[in-house]
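USER:
Class, as today's exercise, take the chain set out below, and explain how the chain folds.
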Amino acid sequence: MQSSPSEELSGLVVRLDDLRYQYGGPNVPPETPHVFIYFLTIENKSDRAVKLLGRKWIIQNVNGETQVVEGDKIVGEEPALQPGERFSYNSFHIGSCDAQAWGSFHGRDEFGDKIHCLIPRFELNIPNNK
């Protein structure tokens, strides 16, 4: 059974507020020692209430390898946003080399229709990586 398509909801906007880099750490695998901590805000500038139910990330490194990460919820939550409201959070990606990340959040609007919004592409560059 094929699922019905979702609408890209105009006015549901994702913004990268900050991106921080960290090398290693006690819980970071040695083969992927580079940690990129990102801070995002999702703002509902539309005229509809929405509930975000999950996300899809695409991470493509400079070697052409692509990783797709999909799942329910956003940092363990299902944010409900009325028009004018926003939801901010932070999380991270780990890697072994420079990469780009982008994706989408998906959910339903107040009428039960499937919606999504795009996560803008951003660079995951290792400082002083020559």
